[in-house]
């Protein structure tokens, strides 16, 4: 990315220089018939560049740390408080109040009401209508039909089935008729050193090979004392027995099985079938129909309507009302309350603290710096017979002798020679 930016910068700076050189080359051309063009060419040079690389180191330091550890202790403290004890007192007071008692009175008033009643009258009305009466006619018709009548036959066929025939087989089996019995066994105890009286003994010392005499007395002698214990053991007694078993042997049996087979035979039957035909004949009928009519009749009626009135009379009532009075009496009480007290205990210890330290380290590297050179190339060079391609080791070259070549001085962009990358800040990054 940096090289591409440098190349772009070199190209931008070299454009005005190339234009100036082109104008100068046109003015200083000796032969007016020859035309040149300026061709930029990039040359890469190796230059040492000083860069800085960031290195980070981890340092471990011993730092004293003072820590506080909480310690919780329980203390009993005496607490005094005052409570209000309720005391109830009951008394009776006389209460007078006025009550409104209802008194009901009934009065009658007259009112006139119009009442409509209906009178029923019956009259006869003539009615004519046309009625369709059905007429039924019966005729006989011959009909043939085919009837399939069943014919049943009995056929016999062989059927095989497997039956189980019982067979008695005798076999010998062995039955264990052993028993348990008690046996005494000696159980050895661990070896222990015990005091025991030993008489005078002469023996040869195995280390020196000299005869040595041991006086009589009490010595620690390894002894092993065991005891007898009763163990219950099982003694097997295998006895052969003859066992009779009944097993079933499969046997194939063939028998004749009757089967009912039904087949159907066709028969033609001829019979007379009556056909009933019905047709409708119209007939006019006349009849008298009774019609009931209701005629309204209006009458005026006078009736007495009871009206109930209510009035309220005052009445004084006296009653005894119980009154409960609550008063509070102060009492002082004392109780023991457990209180948890937290204390901080100082602890000093040393901890390892890691710290990262960064610093810039200078590094010498070599980089390729591009430089742009402007070259003059004639435009009207005509190839002659002296120019022919020469192939050497697979590389095609053209040997040409131009009539006149004026080589201009190469222009090198020296404005970028003093370019250096920025230096990192001095010191270390913490």
Fold and architecture overview:
With 430 residues, the protein is mostly beta strands. The chain has a domain at 2-54 and 366-429. The chain is built from one helix and twelve strands; from the N terminus they run H-E-E-E-E-E-E-E-E-E-E-E-E. Strands 1, 8, 11 and 12 form a four-stranded antiparallel beta sheet that branches. The radius of gyration is 73 Å and the shape is extended. The two termini are 30 Å apart.
Number of strands: 12
Q: What amount of the residues lies in strands?
A: over 45%
Q: How does the helix and strand content classify structurally? A: mainly beta
Radius of gyration of CA atoms, rounded to a whole number: 73 Å
Largest sheet: 4 strands, antiparallel
The count of helical stretches stands at 1
Shape verdict: extended
Strand and helix layout:
Blueprint (H helix, E strand, L loop, with lengths): L1 H26 L8 E141 L2 E9 L4 E7 L2 E4 L6 E4 L2 E7 L3 E9 L2 E141 L9 E5 L2 E5 L11 E2 L15 E2 L1
Antiparallel strand pairs: 1-8, 2-7, 3-6, 4-5, 8-11, 8-12, 9-10
Question: What key attributes describe this structure?
Answer:
extended; disordered N terminus; four-stranded antiparallel sheet; disordered C terminus; 430 residues; mainly beta; two-stranded antiparallel sheet; 1 helix
Summarize the structure.
With 430 residues, this protein is mainly β. Helices cover 6% and strands 78% of the residues. The chain contains one helix and twelve strands.
């Amino acid at each position: 990315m940096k090289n591409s930016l440098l190349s772009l910068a070199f190209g931008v700076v070299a454009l005005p220089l190339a234009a100036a050189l082109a104008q100068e080359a046109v003015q200083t051309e000796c032969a007016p018939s020859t035309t040149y063009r300026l061709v930029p060419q990039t040359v890469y040079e190796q230059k040492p560049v000083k860069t800085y690389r960031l290195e980070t180191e981890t340092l471990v330091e011993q730092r004293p740390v003072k820590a506080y550890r909480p310690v919780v202790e329980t203390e009993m403290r005496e607490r005094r408080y005052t409570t209000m004890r309720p005391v109830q007192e009951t008394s009776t007071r006389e209460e007078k109040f006025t009550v409104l008692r209802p008194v009901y009175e009934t009065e009658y008033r007259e009112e006139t009401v119009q009442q409509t009643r209906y009178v029923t009258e019956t009259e006869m009305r003539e009615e004519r209508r046309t009625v369709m009466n059905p007429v039924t006619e019966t005729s006989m018709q011959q009909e043939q039909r085919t009837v399939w009548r069943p014919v049943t036959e009995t056929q016999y066929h062989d059927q095989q089935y497997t039956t189980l025939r019982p067979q008695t087989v005798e076999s010998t089996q062995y039955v264990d008729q052993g028993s348990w019995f008690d046996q005494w066994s000696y159980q050895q105890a661990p070896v222990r050193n015990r005091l025991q009286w030993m008489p005078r003994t002469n023996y040869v010392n195995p280390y020196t090979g000299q005869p040595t005499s041991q006086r009589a007395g009490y010595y620690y002698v390894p002894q092993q004392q065991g005891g007898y214990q009763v163990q219950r053991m099982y003694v097997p007694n295998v006895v052969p027995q003859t066992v009779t078993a009944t097993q079933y042997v499969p046997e194939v049996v063939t028998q004749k099985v009757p089967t009912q087979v039904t087949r159907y035979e066709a028969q033609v039957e001829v019979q007379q079938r009556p056909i009933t035909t019905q047709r409708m004949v119209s007939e006019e009928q006349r009849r008298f129909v009774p019609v009931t009519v209701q005629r309204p009749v209006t009458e005026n009626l006078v009736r007495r309507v009871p009206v109930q009135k209510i009035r309220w009379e005052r009445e004084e009532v006296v009653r005894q009302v119980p009154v409960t009075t609550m008063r509070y009496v102060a009492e002082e009480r004392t109780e023991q309350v457990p209180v948890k007290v937290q204390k901080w205990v100082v602890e000093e210890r040393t901890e390892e603290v890691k710290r990262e330290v960064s610093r810039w380290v200078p590094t010498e590297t070599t980089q390729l710096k591009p430089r742009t050179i402007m070259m003059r190339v004639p435009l009207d060079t005509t190839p002659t017979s002296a120019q022919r391609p020469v192939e050497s080791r697979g590389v095609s070259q053209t040997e040409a002798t131009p009539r006149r070549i004026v080589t201009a001085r190469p222009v090198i962009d020296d404005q970028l020679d003093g370019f250096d990358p920025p230096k990192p800040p001095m010191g270390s990054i913490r």
